[in-house]
Amino acid sequence: MIKLFGWPISSAHYRACVALDLKGIPYESVFMDPDRKEHLEAKYLAINPQGLVPALVDDDLVLTQTMAIMEYLEEIHPEPALLPANPAARARVRGLAEICNCEIHPIINRRVRLYLAEDMGHTPDEVSRWLTHWYGRSFATLEELLASSDAKGKFCHGDTPTVADIFLVSLLSAAQVFDVDVSGFSTLMKIEAACLELPQFRDKLPRLL
Length: 209
Description:
Elements: E1 2-6, H1 11-23, E2 27-31, H2 42-45, E3 55-58, E4 61-63, H3 66-76, H4 87-108, H5 110-119, H6 124-147, H7 163-177, H8 186-196, H9 199-202
Parallel strand pairs: 1-2
Antiparallel strand pairs: 1-3, 3-4
Helix pairs in contact: 1-3, 1-7, 4-6, 4-7, 7-8
């Protein structure tokens, strides 16, 4: 059985969970306590030298990035699809997901927040301003791209969820945990609401735990 290493409040771990649950793939969750730095212990670093989550272990295969995990799951378990069949549509969905994955997540994640606060001495208010600024810029871009697109349906692309929705919901949830005001992004909020009608999105959403 697949093992998924992580912790419940991680937005990256959440993304892998949603992908697995949408596809109905059974897996075992292996939780670690970040406050006790269990992700930096030798036994986990032997699995993922970055010390980050999630890590998916399938027999001898170890995957450590959520986009790679989703692509792998798509290959081994094609239905229900998380990427459209049409090449242009697949590229569009990947592009939306990568705005979240490359433009938002790397600069707002836990280790960046800790570095800003603990190593650089920034106050909680300054860290909050950092998060608001970077979430806001990328959410504004996504709002514009999605609101003006004929390809958008109930979800980011059409009327079935894709990897773009998984990435979007994970970061909207994280932003709201940090009291970032996302109410002005009406298109994004409608997509999030549609996703949260599905138990695969709703049941493990970090901000609801």
